[in-house]
Write the structure tokens for this entry.
Amino acid sequence: MKPTHIEHIGIAVKSLEQAIPFYENVLGLKCYSVEEVKEQKVKTAFFKVGQTKIELLESTDPEGPIGKFIEKKGEGLHHMAFAVENLEECLKETENNGVRVIDKTPRDGAEGLKIGFLHPKSTFGVLTEFCEKNK
Ligand code: ZN
């Protein structure tokens, strides 16, 4: 396995409406997409910085993963996503290396990506995502 780049960095926020102006007006980035991912109970907003995206995540349900995260830890860095070329193999390989894998098989993420998460207990505290562009 060899990730090609950091695909995106996920940041949990209480409100997209409140957070977007910081990225647009202070950092000068442009929000190019807002999308709801029902399965994850989040609304996402995307910015691009070079090849890497910033993904802001607002919970649509207090019981969803981002809702619970914010309740426990507050707003902040939520996960880091590596772009990989063969997601299914990467997840298997990682699991075979003794790492706790949350998704044993790829599932659908925002922007039509296939994604899979590794457990932060196995990755030194950083919730780690692999993602692959749909072919
Ligand atoms: Zn992500």
In short: The domain at 5-133 is CATH 3.10.180.10 (2,3-Dihydroxybiphenyl 1,2-Dioxygenase; domain 1). The chain has three helices and eight strands. Residues 16-26 form the longest helix (11 residues). The CA atoms of residues 25 and 80 lie 24 Å apart.
